[in-house]
Design brief:
Elements: E1 30-33, H1 42-54, H2 62-71, E2 77-80, E3 87-96, E4 117-125, H3 134-146, E5 151-156, H4 161-165, E6 170-171, H5 176-183, E7 190-195
Parallel strand pairs: 4-5
Antiparallel strand pairs: 1-2, 2-3, 3-4, 5-7, 6-7
Length: 202
């Protein structure tokens, strides 16, 4: 969703502007892996609550969120405010079989052993944390993981395809099965892919 969150979340353009500045006296939030021992334990539960607030029209159960974190913690990051340990955003991502993203609100039993594509399921940053380059930073971290696979995919919602286009994502044709999955994400849902050897940002 973005990102598609179970869907993909939307972001303001300011997230991509190098000139966007932080508030004076504030410390920049930092990303932590969901299996990081230093990650505040309430953060993951807060992340589930945050996703419900950001994606009220794209509901997914807490179990769906938690299972993906458990299956692939390396690709599930929490954005933590340094001063308060509060959650400012998160990303859920993991490998899949190419062009076979999970249906919305589907509980994964396991990751495919023959996965050949990286998938960004949901990337969300709270409004008050935007404008500091955090989306671009997160996507860069994901692309480092995605290098293991030929391509990365996502389902864009909330008209964010132009945002993702700056990172090399393009719309591709979809088959009947994928088209059916997209219907659950809304009328503006678009399946996007990028080749992982492309530049990270245009």
């Amino acid at each position: 969703m973005n990102t598609a969150t179970n869907t993909v979340s939307g972001f303001e353009d300011c997230n991509l502007k190098a000139g966007c500045s932080e508030q004076p006296g504030s410390s920049k939030p930092a990303y932590a892996s969901s299996d990081d021992a230093d990650l505040p334990r309430p953060a993951l539960k807060t992340g589930m609550h945050t996703r419900h607030n950001i994606h009220p029209d794209l509901p997914e159960s807490d179990q769906v969120f938690a299972k993906r974190v458990k299956l692939f913690p390396e690709g599930c990051l929490a954005l933590i405010e340094g001063d308060s340990d509060e959650l400012s955003g998160y990303v859920i991502s993991h490998p899949i079989r190419r062009r076979q993203p999970p249906a919305l609100n589907s509980l994964l039993g396991e990751l495919a052993s023959d996965a050949d594509q990286y998938y960004i399921h949901d990337l969300a940053i709270l409004r008050e944390a935007r404008g500091r380059g955090l989306a671009q930073e997160c996507i860069g971290k994901l692309f480092e993981i995605a290098k293991r696979y030929p391509t990365t995919s996502l389902v864009s919602v909330y008209n964010t395809a132009p945002f993702w286009g700056r990172f090399g994502f393009v719309s591709t044709g979809v088959d009947e099965g994928l088209e059916k999955k997209l219907l659950d994400y809304g009328e503006d849902a678009t399946y996007l892919e990028r080749k992982n050897e492309e530049r990270a940002y245009r």
